[in-house]
Amino acid sequence: MARRIDIEAHPSRRAAGGSTEAAAHGGEVAGIGGADGAGRAGETAQTLDRGLRLLHLVADEPGGLTVTEAANRLGIGRAAVYRLAGPLTAHGMLRRDESGRLRLGAGVLHLARRAQPLLAEGALPALRRLAEQAGATAHLTVVEGAEGVALVVVEPTWTSFHVAYRTGARHPLHRGAAGRAILAGREGSPDPVSSSGELQAGAYGVAAPVLGVPGLEASVGVVALAPLDVETVGAQVRVAATDIAAALG
Q: CB–CB of 157/132 below 8 Å?
């Protein structure tokens, strides 16, 4: 029986005549297929695009953005930023701090938690393959603040000894292969990163960043109780990271 060794590392008017009026207008009732309807659809799409861009801009600034800064970056007026921020604030996606700067709201965290099962589902097949190939515990680590969090963990089925790496385990991004791979990914490097004893004495890790998935900062890695062949395992980890990016993209 395999032994598991634990280690620890977040008002449009309605047509009165119904189908008769619709037929008389050749399908342009309520703007469907008409120039006015196309114009309104275009305006709606533009508003949605700007709102999402605003959300991304605020997310990329830990200190938040003033309305003027947001307007300059979006190339629109301050009044337009206020109109965009209103619905986003009402839905909890944005908030205004005491100085009036726009910051992310708690609604973003709610969406993130709802997305975690989808991430896990997409990552599991590649992680299972990786764990069996490497004979080591495989994991998907995602960024939460300044830490890496093990979101999905898969253990190999055929080894006598392996690491029981807890789902939810946290560690600083600058320590351990998983976190440092994420930092390397921020610089655009897809290369695997290795570590030895950085999170737990006697534990070895190899990880590679998951790149090309908008809004996701993550890495795929393995952790073992013996030194790993970085060249061989690194190639396996990088393939797993690419497969997961394709599954989630």
A: yes
The letter for the amino acid at 212 is: G
Distance CA 245, CA 249 (A): 6
Place of tokens 């205004």: 96
Q: How far apart are CA 193 and CA 112, in angstroms?
A: 27
State the Cα–Cα distance between residues 1 and 162, nearest whole angstrom: 11
User: Is residue 241 within 8 Å of residue 140, measured between CB atoms?
Assistant: no
At 184-215, the pLDDT tens digits run 999 999 999 999 999 989 999 999 999 999 88
Contact call for residues 176 and 195 (beta carbons, < 8 A): yes
pTM surpassing 0.85? Answer: no
DSSP letters for 67-80: HHHHHHHHTS-HHH
Between the CA of residue 80 and those of 41, 46, 59, 77, 131, what are the distances in Å?
18, 12, 19, 5, 50
Helix (H) or strand (E) holding 88: helix 78-90
